[in-house]
């Protein structure tokens, strides 16, 4: 076995080890503990979050860099990605329809987790080496838990810098673009493929650079326009598919629920495998408890940490309960998940769309994947840059940008089998310091929440 194959196997083994039962217990069990500890308080204020997103309580002189809506859009642009299109298809292929139910459970629990992590991201913002106010799990640990917990902050920053590299997103987008555009045009040789991948990768890199040059303010302005458009486009496409199979929707929802507790459609027929697949894919989808999105919410312009927690908790609802459910219903209603063969991931979703849009379906999906990939790559730059700035100093983080831009091109022209396990494993590593710090500091959030909601009630007419 070659050294490359050995390294690939090692990275994949690392990812499987990290995403084993203990981490699932930490994410879901920790989320359930926070839900009970909060006495379900966050769920009562979904309506208030909409008022916050409209800017009703915003003031231009509040500390921070972006509005509540821009912070949420930036966070969603990182979570709304190929996991919503391809990840759901993989979950159904491996775990059966019942895996979707456990994705829902993860999202419902994730509402509370997001409330706590985003509140802490604002409550314990810290100054970087240049004196700029920053948020994120590494600052929460440093400012909220003290210096003796500092190694945990470093662990998050290292895992965040590695886990948010753009290799996967760039590779998957360029691969789909090549299959849709280059191959039908007759570019069948290996040389023409490499040329197409390099040129399109370079164009993508230049577009990303044009956005990230404006830092979080420009990213916020882009995503607050792009994310709603992505969601509406995808839901519109899924809505037409569901309309064509409207009479079968109750049966599909029933199958999701019944299979969640029987596991008959899962590989091996074990209910445990259904739960594990659903929880893992749910965690990848909405990132509740992972910590990346806290860096976006920590940049919100507000003096009330609880307000950003209320805004952040809508993320799992949009990401998993709405968008992922749309994907799941398209796959189940069209029956493509039972077609057999080796079709999986984004190809399975594409086949579902093609049943209703036989001529333009693949192009609609390509547009969606393009928007998802671009917004995720842009947001991941922000996450990675903040992690590098925490580790090496903010005055050195500008060196991260050319490296990141170069990796977009590298991801477009090379196979990712070698590093994919490493990237997935780093996401699991990030969850450990995020959830540990959140559980330890949860009482501080509860105190702030009681004060805030009491004041909100007293101010109401």
From TrEMBL:
It comes from Spongiibacter nanhainus. It holds the Pfam family Na_Ala_symp. Keywords: Cell inner membrane, Cell membrane, Membrane, Symport, Transmembrane, Transmembrane helix, Transport. GO terms for molecular function: amino acid:sodium symporter activity. The keyword Transmembrane helix applies. Belongs to the alanine or glycine:cation symporter (AGCS) (TC 2.A.25) family. The chain crosses the membrane at residues 17-37, 75-95, 101-124, 149-168, 195-214, 226-246, 252-277, 317-340, 360-385, 397-416, 422-442. This is Sodium:alanine symporter family protein. It is found in: Cell inner membrane; Cell membrane. Gene3D superfamilies: Amino acid/polyamine transporter I.
